[in-house]
Write a structure and sequence with these properties.
This protein is mainly alpha-helical and about 450 residues long. The protein has helices at about 40-55, 65-95, 105-130, 135-155, 165-195, 200-230, 235-255, 265-280, 285, 315-325, 350-370, 380-390, 400-420, and strands spanning about 10-15, 15-25, 30-35, 300-305, 330-335, 340-345. It has 13 helices and 6 strands. It is flat and about 75 Å long.
C-alpha cells in the first residue's frame, strides 16, 4: 500500500533511471510521485550531467566497456591538453613571438611550411594505411597517441635548435597530421563498437562534449602553468615528462578496456590457439585482454587475404591441383621460403568463409611453429600434418594441401559454433581482406 491507501496505477522509468509512480487521487486526478523523494535533488543533478555528457539511454544504449574507456580517455585528453599547451608556447617562441628582431614574414613562412607538410602527411598516411585502421583500431589508437607525444616533444625542443627549427616543426606537423588521421579514424571504429542502438551520431556527439569539457579544464590549468614555465626550461621538461607518462598510461588503460566482439587477425589467432590447445573457444572478455597492442606483434607468417590470382599461380596445373578436394570458397597457397600465406577468395565468399580461410592460415602457422601434441582437437591428424609440413615443401605437396582442407572441414563447424555461442560476431569481421575475388567452376553447392 502507498499514500492514500491505494496502489499505483502504473510506474514509469527512463531507461534504467528515474522511476515514478502514478497514484489516483480522490478527485479523479493522477499524482506523480518519485520512488525516492529524499534523493530527488541529487538524482536531478546527476541526470542533468548524464543527459549532457552521456548518450541517451545510457548504460543500455552503449557497450559494457563504454564507461571504463571514457574515464581513461578523459584522463589522457587532459594530459595531452597540458603538454599541447607547452608545445604551443615553445613553437610561438621559436617563430619569434616576443622577439623584436624577428619578422612577420619569416614566422608566416615557417607556419605555412609546417601546415603544408602536415597536409601532405595526412594524404599519404590515409592512402597507405586507411584500410588497416578498422582492423586494428586499438593498436593504431595507441600508436597515434605515442606519435603525438613524440611530435609534442619535438616542438618543445625545437627552440633549442634555431638552425633546424623549421625542419623540426615541419616534421612535427607531419606527425601530428598522421595522429589526426589515425586518431579520428580509430575513434570512429570504436564509436561503431560502442553504439548499440544505431546511435553512432549521439555517442560521437557526447564524446565531443566530454572532450570539450576536458580541454576547457586543461586550458584553465594552463593559465596557471604558463607564467611558471615561460622562462623555466627545467620545469617545462619536467611537466612534459610527468604528463606524458600519465598520457601514455591512460591511453594504455583506455584501449585495454575495450572489449571488441568482432574478430581481427590478432583476436582470431588467440581464440584459435586456445581452441587447439584446450578444445574450447574463449569469449571476447577472455581474449581481448590478451590481444597485443603493438603493431606487427606475433606474426610468424605474413597473411594476404584476398590476394590476386596472378601473384600466386603461374600454371594451370597448380590451379587445378589447388581445386582438387576443395569444397571451400577460397584457395590457399603457402610460400615457405618467403614466409607468406596467400588466400584467393571466391566471388561468393562471405564473412564466415573469410574467417575459415584465415583460420586455415593460422592453423598452418601453428603447425609450423607450435607444439600441438597435447591438442584435444583431431590430434592425430594435426601431428601427422605437422610432421610432413616440417619435412616437406608444402607448396609442392598437394596431398598435404588437400588434407589440410579436409581437416578444416572437420573442425571448423565446431569452432564456428563455439564462436557464436560465446558471443563472437561472425556475420562481419575485421580481418581486412583485399578486394580481389575469383570465380572458378565448382560442381555442387559449397559447404563449410
Amino acid at each position: 500500500m502507498t499514500e492514500f491507501g491505494t496502489l499505483p496505477l502504473c510506474t514509469e522509468s527512463y531507461g534504467s533511471r528515474r522511476a515514478w509512480r502514478y497514484q489516483p487521487l480522490p478527485d479523479g486526478n493522477l499524482r506523480c510521485v518519485p520512488d525516492r523523494p529524499e534523493t530527488q535533488a541529487y538524482r536531478s543533478l546527476r541526470e542533468v550531467f548524464m543527459s549532457v555528457f552521456l548518450p541517451q539511454g545510457y548504460p543500455e544504449s552503449v557497450s559494457p566497456d563504454y564507461l571504463a574507456y571514457q574515464i581513461w580517455d578523459t584522463v589522457q585528453a587532459f594530459a595531452s591538453s597540458i603538454t599541447g599547451t607547452l608545445a604551443t608556447q615553445a613553437v610561438l617562441k621559436g617563430v619569434g613571438v616576443g622577439d623584436e628582431t624577428s619578422t612577420v614574414a619569416a614566422a608566416t613562412v615557417t607556419w605555412i611550411l609546417k601546415d603544408g607538410t602536415g597536409m601532405l602527411g595526412r594524404i599519404l598516411f590515409a592512402w597507405s594505411k586507411g584500410n588497416k585502421l578498422d582492423c586494428d583500431a586499438k593498436q593504431w589508437r595507441l600508436f597515434a597517441d605515442v606519435l603525438n607525444d613524440v611530435a609534442i616533444l619535438m616542438e618543445i625542443l625545437a627552440p633549442a635548435f634555431p638552425a633546424c627549427f623549421t625542419l623540426i616543426v615541419c616534421i612535427s606537423g607531419f606527425f601530428k597530421c598522421i595522429v589526426g588521421v589515425a586518431g579520428g579514424a580509430t575513434r570512429a571504429a570504436l564509436t561503431m563498437h560502442q553504439a548499440r542502438r544505431d546511435n553512432m551520431a549521439d555517442v560521437s556527439a557526447k564524446d565531443g562534449s566530454q572532450e570539450t569539457l576536458v580541454n576547457l579544464a586543461g586550458l584553465l590549468c594552463s593559465l596557471f602553468l604558463i607564467p611558471l614555465v615561460a622562462d623555466n626550461l627545467h620545469l617545462t621538461y619536467s611537466l612534459y615528462g610527468l604528463f606524458t607518462i600519465l598520457h601514455l598510461y591512460a591511453n594504455y588503460r583506455a584501449v585495454r578496456a575495450v572489449c571488441m566482439e568482432t574478430l581481427n587477425q590478432a583476436r582470431l589467432r588467440l581464440v584459435l590457439h586456445h581452441f587447439l590447445r584446450w578444445g574450447k573457444v574463449p569469449g571476447p572478455a577472455l581474449a581481448n585482454p590478451e590481444e597485443p597492442l603493438l603493431l606487427g606483434c606475433r606474426q610468424q607468417l605474413r597473411l594476404i587475404l584476398g590476394a590476386p590470382l596472378h601473384t600466386v599461380v603461374s600454371s594451370t596445373a597448380d590451379f587445378q591441383k589447388a581445386l582438387e578436394g576443395n569444397s571451400s570458397n577460397y584457395l590457399l597457397f603457402f610460400n615457405q621460403p618467403a614466409g607468406t600465406v596467400s588466400v584467393i577468395l571466391h566471388q561468393q565468399a562471405d564473412s564466415v568463409d573469410v574467417i575459415k580461410a584465415c583460420s586455415h592460415a593460422l592453423i598452418l602457422e601453428a603447425l609450423l611453429y607450435q607444439d600441438v601434441a597435447a591438442s584435444p582437437v583431431d590430434r592425430e591428424s594435426l601431428l601427422d600434418l605437422q610432421r610432413r609440413l616440417r619435412e616437406e615443401h608444402y607448396k609442392k605437396n598437394w596431398t598435404t594441401v588437400s588434407e589440410m582442407h579436409q581437416l578444416l572441414d572437420r573442425i571448423f563447424p565446431t569452432f564456428l559454433i563455439g564462436l557464436m555461442s560465446v558471443g563472437w560476431i561472425t556475420d562481419r569481421n575485421l580481418l581486412g581482406p583485399e578486394e580481389w575475388r575469383v570465380d572458378w567452376t565448382v560442381d555442387g553447392k559449397k559447404n563449410l
